[in-house]
Amino acid sequence: MAMYCSVSLTAASGSRFPRNRNSEREKPILKQFKPTPASTQNWSISQKQTLVSGPLKRRRTTTTDVSDFEFAEKLKKIKHFLRKEGEDPIQGLAMIDAIQRLSVDYHFQEEIDSILARQSMLSRTFHSDNNLYEIALRFRLLRQQGYHVSADYKQARLVRNSLDHPHHKSLASFMAKNFHNDEPNGWSSELQELAETEFKMVKSRHQLEVVDVSKWDIAAAERLPDSMKICFKALNNITNEISYEIYKKHGWNPVDSLRKTWTDLCNAFLVEAKWFASGKLPSSEEYLKNGIVSSGVNVVLVHIFFLLGQGISKENVELINNFPAIISSTATILRLWDDLGSAKDENQDGHDGSYVECYRKSLLYENVSS
């Protein structure tokens, strides 16, 4: 996976340093190790795009053709429905619940606050005809917003999905796909369409963020969310500082190699995230192939190689960039040791498996097939 970058590194004082001046000054010392293919699977959030892609250009996406004006019109229509339905106690609560479950509530916060304030007053003075749905919905929404509502009977009905994924503790954007509203009303289809459009727009924005962070460019990073800026700038700065120190001491600029190791590591984490999200365990071969990268051994050993400065040459750098056997074998040992020890002790819910677990699954599948 190639890394393209045209940004020259700058020292703390602001002085630039050129590309490598001694690419052939020492004899290669890594010839005895045969390179093995990189162990990262090219999966990312969109399943079509890795963390680094080339050539790195900010591409236009065709995820959605909805313009900002059309989206604003959809918002205006839903706000009209919300103000209208908010006059009815149960319909107003039902619409707020649907909006929150579809993860678009931040567009309607003012209207929601107004309706819930009115519902809070009604809950003190108005007694419904023991409609369990209305009582439960009003209780949850008002408690969630911070209003005091008496719990009355301290009894809970055990619902499997609600206990596994409590609504107030779950990310609405990840739970929205499980929400279905079949009520015969005028706003349900409009709200569903708005949520789908919102999802496509957010997905498009995230894809552009992946492209921006892949450039390893401070200017492009300014378009990222604040949380991503902090992580990117910290990693970029420390990588540049290490590269500059290596250049001063050994005359070689290793920035591309160091960035590639971090890219491989992040893409390996994305593969594990895909397994975790799908709830599917990979085969033992797939797990180990990705696991030797996610172990982080490659990042450590590549940094050590350049910091020691022994035998740095163009040929050796190309070899070490391709995950040679000395690195992959060490990473395999560490991954298996970690899975046999700490993975058994952690026994955490929702983990992405261990080699032992994947191997047992593979054996079971082979026995059933035979």
UniProtKB/TrEMBL annotation:
Transmembrane segments: none annotated. Residues 70-152 form the Terpene synthase N-terminal domain. Keywords: Lyase, Magnesium, Metal-binding. Residues 213-361 form the Terpene synthase metal-binding domain. This is Uncharacterized protein. GO terms for molecular function: magnesium ion binding; terpene synthase activity. Its cofactor is Mg(2+). It comes from the Eukaryota. Pfam families: Terpene_synth (PF01397), Terpene_synth_C (PF03936). GO terms for biological process: terpenoid biosynthetic process.
